[in-house]
Structure formats: structure tokens, C-alpha cells
Design brief:
about 270 residues, alpha/beta, serine acetyltransferase, domain 1, UDP N-Acetylglucosamine Acyltransferase, domain 1, six-stranded mixed beta sheet, 15 strands, about 45% helix
Length: about 270
């Protein structure tokens, strides 16, 4: 009995949707045909497209596209979690950012998504002991995207960084799954202390624009940090903190603040 080959949409629905959107985009704007073919349609899978985008964006006189492409291809081939995390990130951006109307947008245009995927390759290099090369990736991500994530930091899946300008995530920081943050967020230290000195952001946290979380403290799961706050003490789960220094001003307001992206304080302060 003959067996039909499975459709791409059944094997990889994220990539299938991106390729469908790519064809539609070329029809709507033929002038982008070269970009879209190069970034999407010339590739058989998402990992190859992301490796190409990584090499195109980070290449410079110091490191060629070819070398960067080889590095990225090696990373994606050796660690399937990189591709899985990228798919989760694409869905997260689509679901949480009202400006994102298609899966293809983060891949082509959103520097927050692109910076996180480049960080993931740098983190893979760090875990392989190739620290100087991981520092090079960190430097280029900072120069190209205005996002500075130390390659030793640990960042989960389903990450959405909206606008992404001036994001800083320190060496010993940990960011859980399904975290959302806006521009100018800092997960930093409080001085020149060594060892474990950066924040631990648990799953489902929403961090508003310009917020600073400093020191080896934990922000509990599904909490909200209001825009412009400076967090110096641990935050319990499912709370809202605001102010300088930040204080608890109420509950989180819903079970999944990082997904609803609701940043309004309703009578809490």
C-alpha cells in the first residue's frame, strides 16, 4: 500500500506558514523579491534561513558571511533546541506584539527576535568552550541591534522583546520561558561583585520599558515589573511592582501577564 508523503505544514507548521507568507509578500511588493527569496524561499527549513540571516546581519570586515554561516549551520545541526526555541519565539512575537501580523515579520524585520536568535548561537558557542568567538557574536549583536546579552546568560523559549533597543542582560542572569520585555530593560548587577550577581526572571514575567532589575534576586513567575521601575529586592510570584525603588503595588492582574501584555496599573498606586 502506497503511503503519501506528509505535507510541510504537518511536519513544520511554523516554517510552512512563513514560506506561504513569503510568496504572498512578493506578490504584494515585488521590489522585496530578492530579499525574501534570499532570506526565506531559497532555504529548505527555518534553521537554514536563520543561519543565513545571522550571517547577513552580523558580517563585517572582521568576520565574513561565509564563516558566520558555517558557525550558525554547525550550531543548528548540533543542537535541535535552537530551532525549537526560535519557533517558540516567532509564535510568541506574533501572539503578543500587535504590530506583528505575520510569522515572517520577526525573521525579516524585528531586531528583538533576530538579536535573541544570534544570542542563542553565541550561547551555544559559550557552552562549547569557544568563548572568544561567543564574545565576538555578543559584540556584533550589540553593534547591529543595540541589544547586549552576555553569551553565558541563560534565556528560555517563547521570548518576546518588543522594540528591543538598549536591552542589557548580564552574565549570570537567567530568563525563564514565555517572558516578555520592552525596550531599555536592564538585568544587571549592583556593583563589582563576582560570581552569581544578576537577576533570575521566572516564567511568564512581563517587564515594562526602561525597567532595571539589579542584583542576584528573583522575580517570581507571572509577575509584572512596571515601566521605569528599579527592582532591588526579590518579587513574589504573580505580583505587580512599581517605583524607584520598586515596591509591591498589587497582584499581577491576570494569570499570564507576559502573554496578555497588560501594563496598566488600575488603582494599585
Amino acid at each position: 500500500m502506497a503511503h503519501s508523503n506528509p505535507k510541510l505544514s504537518e511536519i513544520d507548521p511554523v516554517w510552512a506558514r512563513i514560506t506561504d507568507e513569503a510568496r504572498d509578500a512578493i506578490v504584494a511588493e515585488p521590489l522585496l523579491g530578492g530579499l525574501i527569496h534570499g532570506c526565506v524561499l531559497h532555504h529548505e527549513k527555518l534553521e537554514a534561513a536563520l543561519a543565513y540571516r545571522f550571517s547577513q546581519k552580523l558580517a563585517s570586515a572582521e568576520m565574513s558571511e561565509q564563516i558566520l554561516r558555517e558557525i550558525a549551520d554547525e550550531a543548528y545541526a548540533s543542537d535541535p533546541d535552537l530551532g525549537a526555541a526560535a519557533r517558540a519565539d516567532i509564535v510568541a512575537v506574533y501572539e503578543r506584539d500587535p504590530a506583528c501580523l505575520r510569522f515572517i515579520q520577526p525573521v525579516l524585520f524585528f531586531k528583538g527576535f533576530q538579536a535573541v536568535q544570534a544570542y542563542r548561537i553565541g550561547h551555544w558557542l559559550w557552552r562549547q568552550g569557544r568563548k572568544d568567538l561567543s564574545y565576538f557574536v555578543q559584540m556584533r549583536v550589540s553593534e547591529c541591534f543595540g541589544v547586549d546579552i552576555h553569551p553565558a546568560a541563560r534565556v528560555g523559549r517563547g521570548i518576546m522583546i518588543d522594540h528591543a533597543h538598549s536591552i542589557v542582560i548580564g552574565e549570570t542572569a537567567v530568563v525563564g520561558d514565555n517572558v516578555s520585555m520592552l525596550h531599555s530593560v536592564t538585568l544587571g548587577g549592583t556593583g563589582k561583585e563576582d560570581d552569581d550577581r544578576h537577576p533570575k526572571i521566572e516564567n511568564g514575567v512581563l517587564i515594562g520599558a526602561g525597567a532595571k532589575v539589579l542584583g542576584n534576586i528573583t522575580v517570581g513567575h507571572c509577575s509584572r515589573v512596571a515601566a521605569g521601575s528599579v527592582v532591588l529586592e526579590a518579587v513574589p510570584p504573580m505580583k505587580t511592582v512599581a517605583g524607584v525603588p520598586a515596591k509591591i503595588v498589587g497582584e499581577a492582574g491576570c494569570s499570564q501577564p507576559s502573554i496578555t501584555m497588560d501594563q496598566l496599573l488600575r488603582g494599585e498606586i
